[in-house]
Write a structure and sequence with these properties.
By secondary structure, the chain is mostly helical. It folds into two domains: 271 residues, no CATH class; 108 residues, D-Maltodextrin-Binding Protein, domain 2 (3-Layer(aba) Sandwich). The protein is built from 17 helices and four strands. The radius of gyration is 31 Å and the shape is elongated.
Length: 414
Amino acid sequence: MKQFGKILKFELNGYLTNKIFVGITIFLVVAIAIVMFIPNIIGLFESDDDGNIAPADLPTMLVYAEDEKLSAIVKQYFEGVFVDYNVKEADGSIDDLKEMITSGDADCAFVMNGEASYTYYVNNLSMYDSNTAIADTVLQEVYRWKQMVDNDIPSETASEILSVQIESSTEILGKDQMQNFFYTYIMIFALYMVILLYGQMVATNVATEKSSRAMELLVTSANPTSMMFGKVLASCIAGFSQLVLVFGTAILLYNVNKEALSNPLIASIFDIPIELFIYLIVFFVLGFLIYAFMFGAIGSTASKLEDINTSVMPIMFLFIIAFMVVMFSMSSGSVDNTAMLICSYIPFTSPMAMFTRICMSTVAWYEIAISIAILIGSTVGIGILSARIYRVGVLLYGMPPKLSTIIKTVFKKQ
């Protein structure tokens, strides 16, 4: 235990004094701070005291129709929906209107060919231009209102019919996938990045010590098993500390700027229930450990640093496949499909699959318990096996040994 403590302290100190590790952490914290203060920064440059843009500063949208009455009605309706435009009735001919758009005096124009037909004029059509979709809905209402009025229905009655509000309520008996989607996505992506980054780092550190022959000196003064667990737990603590610092900064600055960041989407990301946060920690720690043990064992079998990328490729492919299954399931909205159900009980995929199902679906308590129990048992088993492989692998030099050779040697040594 004394050796383990010294190794753990040494490895942690290595992470904390690593310029890249510290630099990335500082960069992420600063980036989070800038993002959280963007609304306040933008507010400093607002031109009006009330925070609204003056109509003269808005882009111009022109409305043109030969029927002046239709033109006035369309303008009135468009003013209510196109709040980001200064809507005006166009003067002159269509050619004049086109000239105003190409010269930049107007942003776009709607030329009414009839009550239910129009031509949309714009100089450069943006990929995100939704003006025609909005106009279609509005002009349908205009057409219906005009037809009612033309058939002797009072305009007030026609407006009342068209503006009726449908009342509805939704009672969620399980989970709201939309509300939970964003923080689930962020947590899964963070787990993905940390496991790949720090797992690769564990393997690289082991291979570096072995290739420099420093391992031969270390194994004579320290137990290889203590070395293995010390390196893995140090990387886990470093990675988890980095996540806590980054996300802790985000949560703190969100609460400081809560009024400026009053957006339902942003609120849904930070309003993670406490029970889901606990599950996140459990699956994060266990998932990280199971992969870090494998990375450490694989790193010990590599004779040269250049062999690491090839050696860890199967583990990375396994993890990437699990990540893709979860991402595709989340995007489709079906997180209880057959692939996710199977992945929820496989220890290499359950940290992401089961956590996603818990966040975005209704999962029975015994399913969660079984998944966590399998994951704990697998982590302990893989940890013990990895320690044995590590003890043998650190002394194997030359060509990278085959898996069958490693297994025979491991059990032969017991």
